[in-house]
Amino acid sequence: MVSSSSRSSLVSTRQPKKNRTEETQANGKPLDRLIKVTNDARTPGYMKLVIDLMLEMKEEIQEANRRNKEQTDEVERLRNENLSLKSQLNALRTSNTLPISTSVSDSASLSSSNNDPDLKRSIVIRNLPEPQCTNSVEKVFHDLSAVTEILSCLDVECLPITTYRMGQESIPDAYELLICDIFINSKCIRFMVVYRVPGNTSGLNRLMKTISDFSICSNPCILLGDFNLPSLYSQGNLCESTNNSQTFLSLILTHGFQQLVTSPTRGNAYLDLLFCNDTFLIRNVQIGAPIGGSDHSTVIFDLNLLVLPEIFEYKRDFKNADYSAILEHLANIDWLGSFNMTNTVNEMYETFLAILHHVIELFFPIRKVKLAQLSLPKYLQRMLNHRTLLWKNAVLKQDANSWDKFKEANLRTEKAVNRYNVYLEKKLIESEDKTKFYSKPRHGANTMVP
């Protein structure tokens, strides 16, 4: 009975356990408690170290949260500004006040992906509907977009460089116009070659408008051909003696073109002219003999293009080092004396590294190594550029259709890259070249294939 009553007494006097919140409120803030524990002499050293690290981490987290809040506010502000600009742009497009500039910017973004100078294959697509727009640049952009969509639906792994609608800029008994972008030494030059029928005035305005539309680009433009405007250029100066000359001269001055032919090309008339909006691009303009049975002289000129210098980096040539001299130098070093001058293992390690670096400076020659350039096939480069273009378009529009197109192109590109990697590995194995085979794992991280 006594023991039973004793147990009963113990149970009745037991206090309820406090939760962590109540204990914190009773003993102050957690930070103050940690500081008290750190200042307590009975706290082990390792515990004090852990607490100090926790306090430092708390300050870093607070600073990171503050910066994160600033970045979030900035992103929110930019998002609101972007939405406002989009609404303004949509309003302008709806009011038809920006038809030309919009198409020009779109074509400029597409031209960044058309960087393949080796166009060797072409296809003809029949029954492609004519665009309803009247602007020349919008027509070109419409055709390029249509062909790209057709190839994408057919799952053809290529990106068209440019498109030409047969007879689109050729008007019988009026004029013929050929426009092409040529890439030389990583520089894009737009050539516009013109033939104008003598005495025709009906198609002159359309010809001038087309040339004007295609002259609006960031690349230098060269305009040349048989203009059949003898009254335009006389005695070394551009003239506006006729209405046709006035119209053409207005175009030339608007886009900053300069006429570079200084001698007659047919009798005493200046019919074949050469214009360029970059005077440093063309040099050594000469008049040569006619070709075949033509009665027009030839115009010969040179393009003044910068040759891109090769890029090198300097590395130590460990293969051709004099290792016998290195061993002799290392054998004559007073290692014990050098290490005895240090007090800790870290200082000893630093001394050892300093000696080795000094040996490398003395005995290992420096060689010049050419930096590796991107060596992907042309079709892979076009696919990667097309994927980048679709990604930019999806980020701009933020709609499901654009993102689906990007994901589809991204999947096709990834499969093509994987197939190309398999091809390279198979080719490497079949070559039975041990040097290349064992260098592949070492340089795998620096492969040119993404």
From TrEMBL:
Residues 189-299 form the Endonuclease/exonuclease/phosphatase domain. GO terms for cellular component: extracellular matrix. Residues 1-33 are annotated as: Disordered. Residues 1-12 have a biased composition (Low complexity). Residues 47-95 form a coiled coil. SUPFAM superfamilies: DNase I-like. One of its GO terms (molecular function) is catalytic activity. Pfam families: Exo_endo_phos_2. Keywords: Coiled coil. This is Endonuclease/exonuclease/phosphatase domain-containing protein. It comes from Ancylostoma ceylanicum.
